[in-house]
Amino acid sequence: MMTPHDPSEKPPFSYLVKVGHISANAVTVHVEADERERAALAELWQVLSVTSLKADLQIARWKKDGVRLKGRVEAHIVQACVVTLEPVEADIDEVLEQIFVPEGSKLARLITSDTAEMVLDPEGPDLPETFVGDTIDAGAVVAEFAALAINPYPRKPGSEFADHIEADDTPNGGKPNPFAVLKDWKTKE
User: Fold this and answer.
1) Which of 51, 59, 76, 159 has the most neighbouring CB atoms within 10 Å?
2) Based on the number of CB atoms within 10 Å of its own CB, is 38 exposed (0-12), middle (13-18) or buried (19 or more)?
């Protein structure tokens, strides 16, 4: 669905947050992609168009030197139907929660058992992301959460693949036997 993005390049949608300016009290921020950013996201996500992308975020300090982003991501995109290639509109509405900690922080380490196995709780919270320097990119997080919510196989209502059977070699007109091609196959000794 997504094409690889070079981390050295600026992402198509960016909203930089200085970690040093974040307090324990959450600050509410509204971010919205402009026309140029939406066009770049449509190309990155390989969709026909992104007509809107916006998020309302609460940004606050987490523990000593971490940052917590919470909020809601909303987007409206147009994709090509996998059956007819006609445009299909889709709305994205996702809850976002991400924690960032500085690189090398003890809070970002995986918990391991005595046997050096990783202990992950599939129902538990995600591991914190790490950041380098003094900024995090809240816009890139918003775009990532929106991208993960895109339907990889959009289908226009009412469109279906036609039933298709290659050949009907069965005597009673039923489904073909997938092993019929092996009946004449013999091994040479």
Assistant:
1) 59
2) buried
